[in-house]
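Deliverable D5.2: sample structural annotation.
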Amino acid sequence: MTSATASRELPLVGKTVVVMGGSAGIGLETARLARANGAEVILAARNSERLEQAATEVNAISTSAFDATDWSALAAFFDDLPTPVDHVLVTAGGSHYGPLSEIDLDEAQRDVNEHIFLTLRVARHAIATVRPTGSLLFMGGTGARRPGAGLTIAATLTAGLPALVRNLAIELAPVRVNLIAAGFVDTPLSAAILGDQLESRRTQLRETLPIRRVVAPADVAALAVHLMTNTALTGATYDIDGGQRLV
């Protein structure tokens, strides 16, 4: 197989993909798919044990275990990258729910850091580390687009991230910047949050979603790799929820 043929068949041949939050769930599944499409991968996550297991599975060229909201550690991570890299996916961050009277403001501040300020800092670091033909890809959600009790923080972040990404796409051009907005995805994190309610939630979604199944990490990974390789896409938010927003 010639190098030109390999490039057509494996669109990430010769590219380096950085996955922050790459030890499990969507991040790990994206690393697997990027690797299958020819990329070299670099993984970062908080849990060092899971991270090393993931790195072995995808034959990562390097790993780094740190809290992404430790801004000094984040800067050191980007400083140590074998630059330039081509694509950066950030899956770090959760969602904070609860009525206003019960919100833990310290946890809420951490959520804002994990979404808004982490996005800003990664974007700033990307100026010196991502090739002009590359991309940044961030994860958001769809679940708090409709107002409701207990959704104050989640709704604010759900509304804010698309606006942030649109503006970053202008500021960082020609590097492309996009956002994936996921509904419920059947990940280990979802299982940990729902506990013994997980199976009933899966059943509900299978019965009500237009696609009649639950969205899996592999579905999101396929979208992520598409956004990395389609060079016409920037500054947009891409929903992936199995049609949940329609019902």
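Annotation notes: The two ends are 47 Å apart (CA to CA). Residues 3-239 form a domain with the Rossmann fold fold (CATH 3.40.50.720).
The annotation will be released with the project's public dataset once the embargo ends.
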